[in-house]
Amino acid sequence: MAGSSVPAQDLPPAVVRFTEALGHDVRHTIRLSGTVESPTSSMVATEVAGPVQELRAREGTAVRQGEVLAVLSSTNLDLQLQALQALIKEARARLQLAESNLERIKDLFASDVVSRQQLDDAFSEFTAWQGRAEALAAQGARIETDLQRCSVRAPFSGVVVGELAEVGEWLAVGAPVVELLSLETLYIRVQVPEKFFSNLIPGSDVAVHFDALPDLEIQGTVSAIIPRADPQARTFPVKISIPNGEGRIGVGMLAEVLLPAGASYRATVIPKDALLTQGQESYVFLLNGDDTVQRTLVESGGGIGAWIVVRGDIQPGQRVVTRGNERLQEGQAVVGEYIEYALP
């Protein structure tokens, strides 16, 4: 046990798991800090005027596209529609009567019983009521649309991050109701120094870490490269798209991005589980042929999934302890079991 005065050779064999260090082609990377942003942020507004009757989506509520966020009172519109429906009913009756009268006048005109003027008057009467009925129908359709708009719906899936209206408040057309953020897919904006600009490739994968989520490492994608440098800093904005299906990542979080920068090189990689730290030192335990362990200092580099680049007195093919290594001592005997790690 660590710190024990018992010599390592007198300790009982420790049960450990191990795997082999690998040679792997990796690329030089640069570490850049950025802030998580949402691709879509909207102040969802009402398309009709009226008092807020119900606010269904409160701050922090996750909503799907088309879900009702708020409901405005429709009393005035309902009354307008009822009055209009009575006028439409009258106009249609008048139109039917004018149509019957026109047909009758046509027959009489064909028999030279009525004049051309009477025929024209009957046709004008029919046309007028036809236009009146169509105009009222269009007005009714507009009111029905406004009635549907009394339910303010989410234009996209997201989370409500701000309540901008309250129940009973009168809203004018275009007044904001809630602030909505899309969170399913986010992006990180980083500033890349101009000397690395030629290494940027749209669609390439990058590793992303978060200060607030130390246990989370995700793979992002270079989604946009803006080819206009900041004249002061000589850096180019780059957007990194990241998935957020579990909703753990919040807008505004600080992120660290590992961007590929330069040609690939051959390096020794080990599982991150094998790397131990003590003070300023990093080390691993190598499993010798006589089933004892050797404490070996290393320098760690960039991470590749569950693996990490290391430099030091370690070569591909050597066995490194990945489980049970926290309590080992230099030279201690072990009983090892091989464990498979997915390749980086």
Structural key phrases:
OB fold (Dihydrolipoamide Acetyltransferase, E2P), Elongation Factor Tu (Ef-tu), domain 3, four-stranded antiparallel sheet, Helix Hairpins, 344 residues, alpha+beta, single chain, 3 domains, six-stranded antiparallel β-barrel
Write up what this structure looks like.
This protein has helices spanning 75-110, 116-149; strands at 14-20, 22-37, 41-45, 50-55, 62-63, 68-72, 151-153, 158-163, 170-171, 176-181, 185-193, 205-210, 213-225, 235-243, 254-271, 276-278, 281-287, 293-304, 307-312, 319-323, 334-338. A six-stranded antiparallel beta barrel has the order 2-11-14-13-12-15. Strands 3-10-8-5 form a four-stranded antiparallel sheet, with no helix packed on it. A four-stranded antiparallel sheet has the order 7-6-4-9. 20% of the residues lie in helices and 44% in strands. It contains two helices and 21 strands. The protein is elongated and about 130 Å long. β12 (205-210) and β13 form a beta hairpin. It has three domains: 8-37 and 184-338, Elongation Factor Tu (Ef-tu), domain 3 (Beta Barrel), CATH 2.40.30; 42-72 and 157-181, OB fold (Dihydrolipoamide Acetyltransferase, E2P) (Beta Barrel), CATH 2.40.50.100; 74-149, Helix hairpin bin (Helix Hairpins, Orthogonal Bundle). It has 344 residues and is of the alpha+beta class. α1 packs antiparallel against α2.
